[in-house]
Amino acid sequence: MGTPTTTHWVDGGVPRRLVLAPTQRGSTVTCTLPADEDVLPLGHYMLFAMVDDIPSSAQIVNVLPRIAGDIDGDGVVNAADLAALLGAWGSCAAPCPPTCAADLNGDCSVDGPDLAIVLGNWS
After folding, report:
1. Percentage of residues in the chain having pLDDT higher than 70
2. Whose CA is closest to 46, among 34, 30, 57?
3. 3-12, 92-101, 105-114 — which is least confidently predicted?
4. Partner of 59 for a Cys bridge, out of 45, 47, 65, 111, CB 3.0 to 4.6 A?
5. 20 — phi, psi (to 5°)?
6. Using one digit for the tens of pLDDT, what is the confidence trace for 42-70?
7. DSSP line for 23-35
8. Do strands 28-30 and 54-55 pair parallel, antiparallel, or not at all (unpaired)?
9. Around Cβ 16, how many Cβ atoms within 10 Å?
10. Of 4, 94, 80, 77, nearest in space to 43 by CA
11. Rounded mean pLDDT of the chain?
12. Structural domain spans, the chain
């Protein structure tokens, strides 16, 4: 949910609610955020886990712009991203799975052009 801000009887926050499809493996739950900024604009959100329509306490998360070449999503392009790219080298053949983060140019292949993106944005 978007983070509302009320001041002087005016709600200055942008009312947003996005339902994510979770996947669970053991006690770990993950969600994939939409890459389209029209669906998920950048900014702060309150993240809730819902169990039987009862929300958890909110965790504030900040959705930041994706940096080209940042495969692991830590906000910088570095050796970890290069290692992830090399570990996925030659994978992600068509049909391209949507979870292939190392396919940076969207051609369903992890290869030289993806390497050029990582090296071109190295921090």
Report:
1. 90
2. 57
3. 92-101
4. 47
5. -105, 145
6. 888 888 888 888 988 989 888 877 788 88
7. EEETTEEE-PPPS
8. unpaired
9. 15
10. 4
11. 82
12. 6-63, 79-120
Tokens of 86: 């090399």
CB of 109 closer than 8 Å to CB of 93: yes
CB distance 118 to 85 below 8 Å: yes
For the beta carbon of residue 37, count every other beta carbon within 10 angstroms: 11
For residue 93, what pLDDT is reported?
A: 61
> Which DSSP helix (H) or strand (E) runs through 7?
strand 6-7
Task: Name the burial class of residue 2, with classes exposed (0-12), middle (13-18) and buried (19+) by CB atoms within 10 angstroms of its CB.
Answer: middle
Cα 60 from Cα 47, distance rounded (Å): 6
pTM: 0.53
